[in-house]
Amino acid sequence: MENLYKKLPQMNEILNRYDENPVIVKDIANSVLDDYRAKIANKVDFETEDIYSDIDSMINSYTPYSLYNVINATGVILHTNLGRAVLSRKSLERIEKIGSSYSNLEYDVKKGARGSRYTHLVDIVKKLTGAEDALIVNNNAAAVFLVLNTFCQGKNALISRGELVEIGGSFRISEIMKKSGANIIEVGATNRTHLYDYENEIDDENLSAIVKVHKSNFQMVGYNESVDTKDLKELIADRDILLYEDLGSGSLIDLTPYGYSYEKTVGDCLNDGIDLVSFSCDKLIGGSQAGIIVGKKEYIAEMKKNQLLRAFRVDKLTLASVEATLIEYLDFETMKEENPTIRMITEDEDTTKKRCQKLLRKIQKIKDVDAEIIESEGKIGGGSYPLDIKKTYSIKISDPNITKLERQLRLSDYHIISTVHDGNLYLNALTIFDKQIDDIYETLKEYYEK
Ligand SMILES: *Cc1c(COP(=O)(O)O)cnc(C)c1O
Question: Whose CA is nearest to atom 12 of ligand 1?
């Protein structure tokens, strides 16, 4: 075999050949040359032009950004790995508007004096939940921490063993509670907690709170019992004990009309007598990442005095975006069309089917592709409605080299994230947007007809 090393071009030759930024060209060339050195080690033959063609294509698809869009063909709406909620146009417009000029972020225009960033969302949250007051922080994990640190540091807090939830990303509610300085007292058993389990601890002088964690990402079936909020409320009546619920995904509206099982809304929790409720803004709410705490004015005021709030402080762009999303709730019929997350959550199966058929008609124009529509399952995700499977439709593609197809779709310009099981590839139409149908078609066409 001839000396393959001679076929590797010199860096200078490569740099002379391209007009693009030499730093970028050099980076790309080095990674391509590494690939070819590996080929040489494995005694794989190649031509110098192959190297240039690889460099060409990497330069063509080069982006300086590490964060980019993907097409979610998994059918999981609030996909934590893929960025959870997709934002509405209005909320994006507000980010641009507030970010592109000065704003009254911490300025009271009426008084001509310093104001507070925490005033901005209060009115709309009150309207939507009936709460006395509200506070927004970076995410719900920060909300949980802030509540417990403010009210339970060095004190005892009761929580049912059935609610010591791990919520993904190995985030455990019990660990957060410990870090906040609260001393957790677990009550009940994993599957059953009774009122008397709480009653047994209620005379503890160092007791500061009863914490309820919504079992949003799993559900207990079979022999199980938990205690109703109203009974807990009665139990702590006349005592200086906080009743707090971490609602997790926290919906503002009842989703039963859309085929989901009943889950308490934020407003329902407050009506049941919970003093403070916290929830995420980028799960069922359909907004950007944030956490909102709602409830009694005196408690919210207490948390605002906690120095830690500064570490959990939301950015103005978050405020701009979340405010717009919450305002959309005032007209839910319009929101169902304009907020992509809410649209997908409430979409009826016929609409999904039509989108799937449209995609199939396109794909069938491609030579040699073996595709059909099948009924499949979609999920809300983000730890919401764990047992509720949404009936959806997917394109099933059969191919002798499914691993290669999956990889090519993922690494293509549109970064299509599909699922593979039973040796087939699936594109779930629930989370694919209409405007992405052509992109998927182009990508598949390139794969099959190249
Ligand atoms: C998702 C979730 C959290 C964390 O919320 P983030 O906004 O992701 O920080 C906390 N508790 C429960 C029950 C959750 O489901």
Answer: 248
Residue 445 and residue 348 share a domain: yes
| 258-279 tens-digit pLDDT | 999 888 999 999 999 999 999 9
Q: Could you report the per-residue pLDDT of 389-439, keeping only the tens digit for each?
A: 899 999 999 999 999 999 999 999 999 999 999 999 999 999 999 999 999
In terms of Cα–Cα distance, which of 430, 424, 336 is closest to 390?
Answer: 430
Instruction: State the distance from the centre of ligand 1 to the C-alpha of 173, rounded, in angstroms.
Output: 9
| DSSP line for 224-243 | -B---HHHHHHHTTTS--EE
Element (H, E) at 57: helix 48-60
In-domain check, residue 66 = no
- Dihedral over alpha carbons 62, 67, 73, 77 (to 10 degrees): -170
Number of domains in the chain: 3
Gap from CA of 368 to ligand 1 centroid (Å): 45
Query: Can you tell me the distance from the alpha carbon of 101 to that of 85, in angstroms, rounded to the nearest whole number?
Result: 26
Cα–Cα distances in angstroms (integers) from residue 285 to residues 45, 120, 139, 309, in the given order: 55, 18, 13, 22
Residue ranges around ligand 1 (CB below 6 Å)? 139-141, 144, 165, 167, 213-214, 216-217, 246, 248-249, 280, 291, 383
Here the CATH number for the domain that contains residue 333 is 3.40.640.10
Q: Are residues 403 and 443 in the same domain?
A: yes
Per-residue pLDDT reduced to its tens digit, 125-174: 999 999 999 999 999 999 999 999 999 999 999 999 888 876 666 667 77
Q: Exposed, middle or buried, 423 (CB in 10 Å: 0-12/13-18/19+)? A: exposed
Q: At what angle do helices 22-41 and 48-60 cross, to 10 degrees?
A: 140
Nearest CA to ligand 1 atom 11: 248
Single residue among 296, 318, 338 that ends a domain in this structure: 338
Angle at 88 between CA 443 and CA 213, to 5 degrees: 105
In a domain, 418, yes or no: yes
Beta bridge partners of 157: 184, 209
Choose which residue among 217, 249, 278, 280 to substitute to test ligand 1 binding: the one with the highest number of ligand atoms within 8 A of its C-beta: 280
How many C-beta atoms lie closer than 10 Å to residue 422's C-beta? 8
Q: Whose alpha carbon is nearest atom 14 of ligand 1?
A: 248
